[in-house]
Amino acid sequence: MSVSHVNTLEVWARPGAAAHFEQDLMELTTRLGTLPGCLEYGLRRAQVDQQCWVLNGYWISLKAMVQHFSSVELDELLGFLRRHSASIRFSSISASAELEPHDGVR
């Protein structure tokens, strides 16, 4: 299967974040990778800023990516990030620039 859509979440941890922050973040990321239509959900630390982690989700379709936005797994990740991170930035891209918006999401 080929990748149709990608979502990216950049997370900056608060100074002094708990030692288990990265481990907990990895566990939550792994759970997101099991969602229907997810080809992979990965986590890596940014090379330039060691307080920044980058999560990428690779999806077979726009529908699968949009459905994950209302999943219990994503809600748990966002709750964890609210408690432990200083800043979050989200973006998404598609393999086709000609896709029509779906429920207000591109």
TrEMBL record:
One of its GO terms (molecular function) is monooxygenase activity. The keyword Amino-acid biosynthesis does not apply. It comes from the Bacteria. Residues 9-72 form the ABM domain. Pfam families: ABM (PF03992). Keywords: Monooxygenase, Oxidoreductase. The keyword Zinc does not apply. This is Antibiotic biosynthesis monooxygenase. It comes from Metapseudomonas resinovorans (Pseudomonas resinovorans).
